[in-house]
Design a protein that fits this description.
mainly alpha; Arc Repressor Mutant, subunit A; about 65% helix; flat; single chain; about 150 residues
């Protein structure tokens, strides 16, 4: 039997990878991600939903739902800090289907409303500079820069 708190590298790697794949899915409401986390991950790990939840919590120290919330709010903080996304765009980009739910959850986790957070970041760090990096295909580099 499994014990809570005992590291399970294969379980941990597979669960985290699958959870990250689910969190990266855009334009899905939190109900979809919660359902995916509860059922899909348990199924992929060949465990019951309850047992998966218990093992995940013991391994990572937080529930799958809390883990997804942290990922989504972290992404929201990045988008708001970039200055390129409005609060509404950030809400939908991070997978929330309701602006009210997003704002409430963001305030609970960060301590500021999304709009206040965005304004505070711009006030402290100034407006975001446009990204200067560009993707250059390897074949182009090898042909014109002599790289192999």
């Amino acid at each position: 039997m499994f014990e809570i708190g005992v590291e399970r590298p294969i379980f941990a790697r597979n669960a985290r990878h699958t959870l990250l794949d689910g969190a990266g899915t855009q334009n899905h409401g939190s109900a979809h991600l919660n359902q995916y986390a509860a059922r899909g991950l348990a199924r992929e790990a060949a465990l019951s939903t309850w047992h998966f939840h218990r093992l995940f919590t013991g391994t990572f120290g937080s529930t799958p739902h809390d883990f997804l919330t942290e990922l989504r709010i972290g992404r929201a903080r990045q988008l708001l800090a970039s200055g390129s996304y409005s609060v509404t765009e950030t809400c939908f980009e991070t997978g929330y289907s309701s602006l009210g739910s997003f704002s409430t959850r963001f305030r609970d986790v960060v301590g500021l409303s999304p709009g206040d957070y965005s304004r505070q970041v711009r006030r402290v760090f100034g407006p975001a500079a446009p990204a200067r990096s560009q993707f250059i295909p390897t074949c182009f580099l090898s042909l014109y820069a002599g790289l192999e």
